[in-house]
Amino acid sequence: MTFAPQGKMREAAPAPIARFESGVGVIRGCMYVVGGHLEPELSATAAMYRYDPSDDSWTKLADAPREISHVTATVVGDQHLWLVGGYVGQHPGTGIAESYRYDVSRNVWEEGPPLPAIRASGGLACIDGRLHYFGGLDADRSTNRDDHWILDPAAGKGWETARPMPMARTHAATAIYGGGIYAIGGHYGHDVPGRPGVIDPSADLDAVHRYDPISDSWEERRPLPHRRSHCEPGTFVHEGRIYCAGGRSIGSFGELLREDRPLSTRIRRILVKAARKLKHGASSAGVDDLLCYDPSSDRWSSIMKLGRTLYAPAAVCIEGEMILTNGGGRGWQDPSDRTIRIHL
Questions:
Q1: Phi, psi angles (nearest 5°) of residue 216
Q2: CATH classification (class only), 11-250+285-343
Q3: pTM over cut 0.70
């Protein structure tokens, strides 16, 4: 059965800054957005804001310790927001292994144990009080890794090695459901080897895997309907389903030919894709829909359009309502400050 949102999309207070590819989390009924890219020239930001849906307001909080991008956030308990790895400074940035923990009660950042190696754009999740970091990029921005490390913040020790990912990749979305961690889509490659900052327009991935922390094992799940990456900050869980808002989809023309659509539709989609690629290259591949995954049936479906393509927007669900903000409008160009809300 296809699931559809229950409410109508409505406008909310715009975000204080336009950006994309931020770290995102929900603590005590509020949405936290930190870091990410700005225009021009893909500069990074350290800015963090809290959105309170109860009064539709944004509040400026303490900046992150570094101007950072290519970083995923996760929440530990009801007190801390963690950032791990990333690239800092002006694009293409410098890779780091550091981790940082934000305390919501004190509005302060503290440094945590560093990763065993520099990583960026890896998956980050907290389950049973332990942080998991997997995949991601080396400092060279082109070498993908399958490493998987675990940190128990309460133990006072460093990161430990766990079962590697089945497929090395970067920019995979992460979700926690049913006692497992999902790694969704992603990208293999990133920059042209030896040319940091020059994007390699390689195809994104449709692979989905689930990690079981009890058996320390990964299993393959049903792939995405289409290749997708850069939806890490737009992925969340609500009432037994995983949602992915926006992102990027760079695929092959052969994929469009194999779609289960009328031939005329497939040809039209190929022509549109070709025109966009000629005009904008990889930056034109933003996605304009909300995907929904039902783990019980292992099925994906596209349930609504977002009104425009959104490259790496931030999205969460609070009390049954999706709150979506930011995202690139034309790939990583034209970032948005728009915020919308809709009951799921």
A1: 50, 55
A2: mainly beta
A3: yes
